[in-house]
Amino acid sequence: MSDRFFLDTNIFVYSFDNEDTEKQGIARHLINDALQNGKGIISSQVVQEFLNVALQKFDEPIAVQDAKTYLDIVLAPLCEIYPDPEYYKQGIDIHITTKYSFYDSLILAAAQRGNCRILYSEDLQAGQTMGTVTIVNPFATIDR
Question: Where do the structural domains in the chain lie, given as residue ranges?
Fold first, then answer.
């Protein structure tokens, strides 16, 4: 069984959240682990969503040059999944099966396509398994 894992966008957002240092620490650990061991991946969707939030929705938006640097150093090395028609069809099938939003369904499709065992996300139903991918909320112990 694969020991690869997928990081949802919220992991990257929390890594910049100075208001919630517990979640920030967990998020940074997951990202560092992904970069160090080469087993963590993301999709182009995660890159797009994170940059959109970081450049426009953070309380203090990230500087453009800092966004480009983060893209080069963190996001691009982790990005392995890119869309094609079959990926979108898989996302539609997951959407129909799970009733998740289409975009959340694409995240699940990307995790499956990347042969990941775990999808780290706060946004989806923790403990649910889709194919070989199990959704894990890395912040569950904090949120209780």
Answer: 4-139
* Distance from C-alpha of 109 to C-alpha of 95, rounded to nearest angstrom: 10
**Residue written as token pair 């309380």:** 59
Cα distances (angstroms) measured from residue 120 to each of 2, 4, 24, 132: 15, 11, 14, 14
Pairing of strands 116-120, 4-7: parallel
What pTM does this model have?
Answer: 0.94
Q: For residue 125, what pLDDT is reported? A: 81
> What's the CATH number of domain 4-139, 3.30.1490.20, 3.40.50.1010, 3.40.1050.10, 2.60.40.1180?
3.40.50.1010
Q: What does the pLDDT look like over 11-66, one tens digit per residue?
A: 999 999 999 999 999 999 999 999 999 999 999 999 999 999 999 999 899 999 99
Q: Among all chains, which residue has been given the structure tokens 């998020």?
A: 27
Please name every residue paired with 77 in a beta bridge, in sequence order, or none if there are none.
none
* Contact status, residue 26 vs residue 64, Cβ threshold 8 Å: no
